[in-house]
Give the backbone structure.
Amino acid sequence: MNRFEVVRTGASSTESEPVTQKNVSHRGAAANPSAKAMQDKFGAAIKRIEVIWGETVAYVDPASVEQMIRWLHDDPSQRYDFLSDVTAVEYRDSEVPIEVVWHLRSLPYRRFLRIKAQLPKGKPLEIASVYDIYKSADWLERECYDMFGIRFTGHPDLRRLLMWESYKEGYPLRKDFPLRGRFSRSEQLRQALAQNPEARYSMEELTIADAFAELPTDMRERLSKGERTGE
Amino acid sequence: MARRTVEVELSTSGLDAQGRPQRVPLVTNDGGTAVAIDPPPSVEPDLEGEHMLINIGPQHPATHGVLRLVLELDGETVVRCIPHIGYLHCGFEKIGEYRQYNQIVCWTDREDYLNSIGNNVAFALGAERLFGIEITERCKVLRVIASELSRIMSHLVWLGTFCIDIGAFTPFLWAFQRREEIYRLLEKWVGARLTTSATRVGGMAADIPSGWMDGLRQFIRTFPHTLDEIDRVLTRNAIWVGRTVGLGVMTPDEAINWGLSGPMLRASGVDYDVRKDFPYLDYETYDFEVPVGTNGDVYDRYLVRFEELRQSLRILQQAADRLPEGPVNIDDPRVILPPKSKATSEMESMIHHFKNVMEGPRPPIGESYVAVESPKGEKGYYMVSDGTSKPVRWRIRPPSFVNLAAIPKMVEGHLLSDVIAINASIDIVMGEIDR
C-alpha cells in the first residue's frame, strides 16, 4: 500500500545521540561546544557564555554580531545553517538594555545556540542585518523592526510588516507602549475610517506597473489625496 | 542524508515513468490512433512590457484567511509577488506579558486555531522548562496523543481546502467528516472543540474520561480506510498530478536558507523533524518514520503530508497501547491547583489555591526556547522570566509565517492559477502568521 517510501531520520544521519533534555539544572549544564569555539575565535567580542536550562546563550558585542553569525554559518565545524528566529527582549527594568536574540540551529550537528546582543537605551537601536546569510531573516527582521523599532542595517526592504505603513503610534512591543495603544479609541477609530481602502496599493506597487498613470483622472485625484470615506 | 524517489504506478494516463505529466492526446487521425497536437503558434501581437497589477485578497476564499497578494503579471505569468499580512494582528505577544502562565494557554488556542491542542502542549512544555518541572509519564503519553490528533486534524483541513483550491470537492467532505470525529473526542476530553486550553503548567486540565480510549481506538481502526479512499482518488489522478507537479520548487539548500520547516522543508529532501532531531515528550521511544520528498514541489508536499497522516496513526496506536496508570499532574502545590474539595476544607490547600489563582505560579529567573514539530513546521515558544508570575517576553516562532515569507520566491515565473496551488501547499493559518 505504501508506495511512498519513507526514510528515517535520527541516529542514522549523525553520529551523536538525540538531544533530549532531561533533568537539566537551572544553570551550569554542559555548554554547547560551539560556544568554546566562538571564544577561541573571537576572544573578547564574546562577552559571556551562559547555560540556562541546558540552552547555551552567547552574549556578544553588537558591532561584530554579523561577522560571528557568518562564521557560524560558513565554518565546516559549526554549520549553523538554519535560522530559527530573530526577536528582541525588552525588560521591565528601564535600565537594562534591549536584547536582540538570534536562535540558530545546526542541522548537520544537531546543535542549538542562542546569540544575544545588548543595545543600550538612549542610543539609536541599530544592528547589522543577517539577511545576506539567511533569507529567512527577511520577515523576521521586519517584524522585529515593526514591533521594537530596531533598525537592521543592510536589510534591503525594512518596512513595517504586521502594522500598516502609516501606523503612527510607535512600536507596540516596547514596554513604554500601553497595552491599549497610545491613541484613544476614538482617535484610532477616526484614523481607521479616514483610510481609503482603495488606495492601499503602496506607491511602490503602483510604480511597478505604471498603473497609476493609466487610471482615469478622477480616480487618480482621489488616490493622490488619500480620500476620506464616511465617518 | 537519505533520499528516495517517487514511484508512481499509473492507473490513469497522464504521467510518465518519472512522474511528470504526459501530453494527453486529444485528437485522432483518420486511422483512429491518437496523435498529440501542438498548440498553434500564437497569433497575438507581442505584448511584452505590458504588465498588469492584480490584487488577490484579503477577502478571497483561495488565500486561506486574510492574506493579500499583489501580483505583477506579464500575460498570465507572475513576474513579481508582494505579500501583505497583518490584517489579523491582535498582539498576542503583548497581551502575554500581562497574563500569568496558565492564562496564556488560552491565547495559544487562538493563534494556530487548526492545531489548538498541539499549541497548548507546546506552550506547556516551554513553560515547564522555564519552571524546571518534569511531568508525569501519563501526562507525557496524553500529550503525545493530543499532539498527534491535532496533527491529523490540521492536515485534514489542509487536505480538504487544498482539494477545493485545485477543484476536487469530494475529498474535502471525507476529510471534514473524519475531523469531526476527532472534535467529538476532544469535546469529551476537555469540553471544547476548537479552543481547547487543555494543558496547565505541570499537567493537563483534565484526565481522559472513562471509555475515551475506546473512541480513540475506533478512530485509529477506521481512519486508514478514509486515507486509502482519498489516496485512490487523488495521488495518481492525472488532473491532480498535472496541477501540482513541478510547481513552487525549492531546492534543499534554498529551503534551509529560507528557514522553511515541517513538511515544506522535508518535501525538499531535508530530513529535519524536531520530533527526531531534538526530541521532546519521549518521541525518541516511539517507532515512526519521517517522510522525505525529492523534488520540493507542491506534489511532494502533498505526498509528505499524506504520509505523515499514516505515521501519526502509528504513533497514536503506540501511545494508546502504552498509556500508563497514575497521576496526570505533578505533585507540587506551588504550580498545581489542589482539588476543589480540599480547597474548601483544608487550610493549606485553600492558601495554595488562593496564591495560585491570584498571584500565579512563579518561575525562577531565566529563559527557555522550546520548539515542537507542529503540523506546519517548527513551532517555538520563547519565554523570558524575571522571576515574577508574568513573562517579560513571550515570543511565538510561527512556522507558517516563515514559510509564507518564501512565497515570492516560489510563485515568480509560474502562472496565476498556480499561485493558488502553491499558496495552498504552504498550509498557512493567518491566525498564527499575524498573531
